[in-house]
Amino acid sequence: MAAKKEVGEGKFSLNKVLVYLFLITGSLVSLFPFYYMFVMATRLNRDINSVPPPFTPGTHLVENFQKVTSNIDFFGAMWNSFFVSTTITIGTLFLCSLAGYTFAKLEFKGKNVLFVMILVTMMVPPQLGLIPQYYIITTLGWLNDFKALIIPGLINAFGIFWMRQYIKESVPFEMIEAAKIDGCSNFRIYWNIVVPMTLPAFATLGIIVFMHVWNDFLWPLVVLRDPSMHTLQVALRALNDSRQMDYGMIMSGTFWATVPLLIVFLLFNRLFIQSLSEGAVKS
């Protein structure tokens, strides 16, 4: 019996080591592009174009970033991106969670049909709606205005689906019925019961929405004409307009544009991981 137990423990340890090796290898492969972007941001063109290419950081990070700020209004564009991304994220969390609570816990005629119609919109590529959306924005007179970015992005089908599924599994009907017996309105139930119980879902959806809006390029390029209103991704495009591309400068701008995303993820990663682990346990 002792021999079998030792063999079992050895097998378990070997499996554990293999899992950790796989996770470490996957993490290194995932982080390498970001690391090499940092390496290029610290190098000059002659270093980047050398053979073999450098794999260790250089000493020109500040110099390359000074080139970025001299070519574009980097901090102004970063503020524009932060304002738009934060506003859309907050609005999306509020509206999608309200809709998710409605579809998950309230009963009304045509609920399932309406929910299916919302899911069908997820199958339509966003590029197909570019022309009609541009026509609507032009008709409303919102061209070159942040409203053209914020208002269409305040709600999305995935956000409704995600919040509906999480609320449906995480909030018991008995708790909602008890709150209704105590005289709570639907909005008070949502605000005082549903929101505190679904904070991990809020964090996950918030990270996804913030990253999507921050990295969006096509729609801000179409509707924002004034350079002072450009978001960061559109502003970075100007770094490619020169005849001789300065890869160190471009990678420096791209690197510093990515840092806010890492900060947002690190701030909310605990809730993000909690939402994934809860989903795994429930499934």
TrEMBL record:
Gene Ontology BP, a term: transmembrane transport
UniProt xrefs under SUPFAM superfamilies: MetI-like (SSF161098)
Keyword Transmembrane: yes
Membrane topology designation: Multi-pass membrane protein
Main location: membrane
Residues in ABC transmembrane type-1 domain copies: 78-268
Cross-referenced InterPro entries: MetI-like, MetI-like_sf
Annotated Gene Ontology cellular component terms: plasma membrane
TM region(s), chain numbering: 17-38, 82-101, 113-137, 149-167, 188-214, 247-268
Keywords: Cell membrane, Membrane, Sugar transport, Transmembrane, Transmembrane helix, Transport
Locations listed in the record: Cell membrane
Family label: Belongs to the binding-protein-dependent transport system permease family.
Protein name per Swiss-Prot or TrEMBL: ABC sugar transport system (Permease)
